[in-house]
Amino acid sequence: MITKMPSSPAQGSNDYFLSSGDKIRFFFEKEVFTKEGDFIIPKERAVNKIGHALHALDPVFKEITHSLKIKDTAKALQINKPVVVQSMYIFKQPGIGGEVTPHQDATFLHTEPMQCITGFWFAVEDATEENGCLQFIPGSHRNEITRRLVRSLPTEYPKTKFLGQERDYLDEEFVKLPAIKGSLVIFDGRVVHKSNMNTSNRSRQAYVFHIMDSQDCMWSKDNWMQPSVALPFPAL
Hints:
metal-binding, 4-stranded antiparallel β-sheet, Jelly Rolls, iron, metal ion binding, globular, mainly beta, about 30% strand
């Protein structure tokens, strides 16, 4: 049972986050804890996301991820040898669900070559402009990756760092994509996207996982997340 904030609040810089690739772990919104690490609000309303191995360790999400419909969809997209690299359940809590700044998923899930990652995003609830629907820059998947999150050297802290820099984007470059409950949004790992803070009184829950085409494609060895002995990337 989680009663206090686990480890450091800086997601991406601590062992709790870095070792979550083969586990199911909880990550929380900012400013929902006291200085002592106690919850300010009920913890079920403080969760930002759950990750990153739901697709392999939870029976419900495993069935969804590895369903025949998803396999047929991957085949239609000409993903030749798909493996699932990570999964998340995102809550986007009412009133506090944080902004997700513009980024490319390949910044965090880097492959060589770079066009091997595809995101599958399911709207578990209606995603509206008010509660922070996804926003994309059309055609941005043709852009280069300008920033990468990598593991630092063992002697360095924080334990991850960014190489390069995300360029500045204008709000008018983005197209908002409201999605009704049950919708599936599929996007290239290089496309620039974001979502605004949820200022409404309705949550915007979603399930997302990422697939890599492992045919003629390599997972970068300095990515923050690495396949483990306990959980190699499972074939779709």
